[in-house]
Design goal:
Blueprint: H1 16-25, H2 34-52, H3 65-82, H4 88-108, H5 121-124
Helix pairs in contact: 2-3, 2-4, 3-4
Length: about 130
C-alpha cells in the first residue's frame, strides 16, 4: 500500500527510491553556511538576468527586459541587505556583476531610465558607464 498526500494522490516523497536519491543529491541545509546560500542565490539571479537581457549565446531568443528588471532589482536588494554579512571577498565581484547587468540593461533599453531610476538603482544609487 503506498502512502498518499492529504489530497489522496500518491506522495512522491514517501517512496524510498526518491527519498534516497534526493538525499544523495543534496547536502543537509543545516550544514550550508549562510554566505554560501547568499552567494549561490546571487549568482542564480545574475545568470537569469543575463539570459533575460539577451547576453547569452542564444541572444534575443529569451530577451525580456521586464523580467530582467525584476531580476536585477532583486539582486541589488539582496546585495544591499547582505553586504555587511558577507566578506568583501564575496561582495566585490557580485557588486561588479550587478553593475555590469545594470549597464547592459541601460544599453538594451529603447528608452533608457533616468539616472537613479534603473533596475536596482534605488539600492545602489545611479549607475554610470
Amino acid at each position: 500500500m503506498s502512502e498518499t498526500s492529504p489530497a489522496g494522490s500518491p506522495d512522491p516523497a514517501a517512496t524510498p527510491d526518491s527519498a534516497a536519491g534526493f538525499d544523495e543529491m543534496t547536502r543537509d541545509i543545516a550544514e550550508v553556511p549562510a554566505v554560501e546560500v547568499i552567494v549561490t542565490v546571487a549568482v542564480n539571479l545574475m545568470s537569469a538576468a543575463a539570459v533575460k537581457l539577451g547576453l547569452t549565446e542564444e541572444g534575443d531568443k529569451y530577451k525580456d527586459l521586464d523580467e530582467a528588471r525584476k531580476l536585477v532589482t532583486a539582486l541589488a536588494g539582496l546585495l544591499d541587505a547582505s553586504t555587511t554579512e558577507i566578506s568583501s571577498f564575496h561582495a566585490a565581484p557580485l557588486r561588479d556583476g550587478l553593475k555590469s547587468l545594470q549597464l547592459a540593461f541601460r544599453e538594451a533599453s529603447i528608452v533608457p531610465d533616468a539616472p537613479g531610476q534603473g533596475p536596482g538603482e534605488k539600492y545602489t544609487g545611479p549607475v554610470y558607464g
